[in-house]
Amino acid sequence: MMKMLLFDFRESEKDFFENNRLNDFDITFIKEPLNKETELSEKQYAETDIISVFTTSTVSRDILEKFRNLRIISTRSSAHDHIDIDYCTMQHIAVFNIEQYGRTGVAEYAVALILALVRNLLPAYFDMKTHTINHKKYEGRVLSSYTIGIIGCGAVGTAVANIARFLGMKVLIHSYMKNPDLANSCEFVSFEELLAESDIITLHLPYDGDNYHMISTEEFEKMKEGVYIVNTARGELLDIKALYDNLIKGKVKGAALDVLECEFISTYKGEMATVIDDIEEHCVETALITQKLFNLDNVIITPHIAYNTLESVNYILAETFNLIRDYLKGVNTNRVC
């Protein structure tokens, strides 16, 4: 029986384990992410065969060196840059990720965020609670009057494009992949043209290191006045300081972020002073700017939940165990290293 430590365990995952028998795994569930603060027993470090994590964990070399018999790391995400892949390769630790799990859920969530922004849903809600109603403040526009720019045309970007077309929006797409199914209904354009022509810009591409801060000061300068920004992809794609600056001066009319750079520290609920010495300086700055964004009425920030539907969660967990079983039989589907 394989001994597994499953970190980042969430309430939404309980039903899967209650409804599925996993007799070939001895699983210990841990709600907290795996990081330098994690305390495990010597027995756990010695006997664990598998660890499963989410992107909120930081699986660095100094952590991995404590596990003496680790064979497999499975991340319940498509992203895997929170894991030291070089060390895992050197130590022959197999790493697996999950792909294609959030196509419909993330696409629907992105469109929901767009609707909330352009119809001023949150300001109207909070003003209603405080009885300070100002109807002029909530005036919006129908979606069919907007041009949406979609950066990335994988499964999620394609789904967003289809929903946007159904709603009557003009759709511009910039992507290395060109889905032929969209050729007659959407326009594939250069990055610069998308920035200049879009009323709403939404990100739907993976982070690969080379596209770090692909939306930053220079890109904001090329955008329309009053543009909306939506990011349900990866926080590292968007320079949050440049976003804040352009929100303050009015270039960006509103923003919705389901992902943040340095996500752990940006959502840390303890005393900042207890972890500040162990994190990079730019992450501290990012966390401070995130707190400023929370004070803006035209910004929506949610805790990385675009994928979080019953269907997606069940798929991720089922695929996690299928990939591990396949690997033990000699099949390396979705193996990162």
Which structural class do the helices and strands define?
alpha/beta
Q: What is the β-strand count?
A: 12
Proportion of residues in extended strands:
15-25%
Strand order of the largest sheet: 8-7-6-9-10-11-12
Q: Which radius of gyration do the C-alpha atoms yield? A: 21 Å
Please give a structural write-up:
There is one protein chain. The chain is of the alpha/beta class and 337 residues long. The chain has two domains: 2-101 and 310-328, 3-Layer(aba) Sandwich (Rossmann fold), CATH 3.40.50; 103-301, Rossmann fold. It has 13 helices and twelve strands. The protein has a seven-stranded parallel beta sheet with strand order 8-7-6-9-10-11-12, sandwiched between helices. The chain has a five-stranded parallel beta sheet with strand order 2-1-3-4-5. The longest helix is centred in the C-terminal third of the chain and has 19 residues, at 310-328. It starts with a strand and ends in a 9-residue tail after the last helix. The model has no long low-confidence stretch (mean pLDDT 93).
Protein traits:
5-stranded parallel β-sheet; alpha/beta; 337 residues; 2 domains; globular; 12 strands
Structural topology:
Blueprint: E1 2-6, H1 14-19, E2 25-29, H2 42-47, E3 50-53, H3 61-64, E4 72-75, H4 85-90, E5 94-96, H5 103-118, H6 121-130, E6 147-151, H7 155-166, E7 170-174, E8 187-188, H8 191-197, E9 200-203, H9 217-221, E10 227-231, H10 240-248, E11 252-257, H11 263-266, H12 281-293, E12 299-301, H13 310-328
Parallel strand pairs: 1-2, 1-3, 3-4, 4-5, 6-7, 6-9, 7-8, 9-10, 10-11, 11-12
